[in-house]
Amino acid sequence: MNKVVTTREELLHTAQEIVFQDGMDKLSIRALAKKHDISVGAVYNYFPSKSELVLAIIENFWKQVFHQDICEMSSQLPFTEFYEIVYQRLVKHSEAFFSVLLGQLNILKDNDKEKGKQMEQKYMIHIQNGFLYALQQDERIHPSIWNEVFTKEDFVCFLLEMMINDLTHQRMDCRFTKEILERLLYEKQEER
């Protein structure tokens, strides 16, 4: 066995390679240990089960997608440009995620599926907060477009639902939605 210490990150990287190259069914604690020439027990120190390993891969996916924190993008960036950047970032990573990971998540036990949902919710809240921040920073958007029915929060939730729908249908382009945003958020400003 290899005497060199293997890190959690190295194991996670190798696990992702196995999943994206060979499929989820080829991923196992044993296969991961063999690739690193370490004991199975060493892998279990980092990932107590295959489910924990799969959840770590999913979390790592979300972290990779948002490596540059969306809340720290330029405050000078128009909201529509911000939307397009986030959308393209998701498109870049979504094909592998939707085709390889989501289709194979049935291997998770019910309590692990719940953990996965909670993790997804955590990142969706992060995205939602980033969108709200970007919306508030865009000085071209006149405050009068918002009211108690048409709130920024509800607008962002609606927009995220549309984004997920577009990604699920594998629309690689967000020009239509961006055009809607331009017309809704900016064109009326000229009339005021």
UniProtKB/TrEMBL annotation:
Keywords: DNA-binding. The keyword Ion transport does not apply. InterPro entries: DNA-bd_HTH_TetR-type_CS (IPR023772), Homeodomain-like_sf (IPR009057), HTH-type_Tx_Regulator (IPR050624), HTH_TetR (IPR001647). Residues 28-47 bind DNA. Residues 5-65 form the HTH tetR-type domain. It comes from the Bacteria. This is TetR/AcrR family transcriptional regulator. The lineage of its organism: Bacteria, Bacillati, Bacillota, Erysipelotrichia, Erysipelotrichales.
